[in-house]
Amino acid sequence: MADNPGTEIEFEIHHSQSRVPDAERGRMLQAPGFGQVFTDHMITLRWSAEKGWHDGKLEPYGPFTFDPATAVFHYGQELFEGMKAYRQDSGSVVMFRPRANAARFNSGCRRMAMPELPEETFIRALELLVSADRDWIPDGEGQSLYLRPFMIATQRGLGVNHPSSEYLFSVIASPSGAYFGASKAVKVWLSEDYTRAALGGTGAVKCGGNYAGAFAAQQQAVDKGCDQVVWLDAATHEWVEEMGGMNLYFVYGSGDSARVMTPSLTGSLLPGVTRDSLLKLGPKLGIPAEEGRISVAQWREGCASGEITEVFACGTAAVISPVGSVLGASGGWTIGSGEPGPVSERLKAELVGIQNGHKPDPFGWVHKVA
Ligand code: COI
Question: Longest C-alpha distance within the chain, in Å?
Answer without folding.
Answer: 62
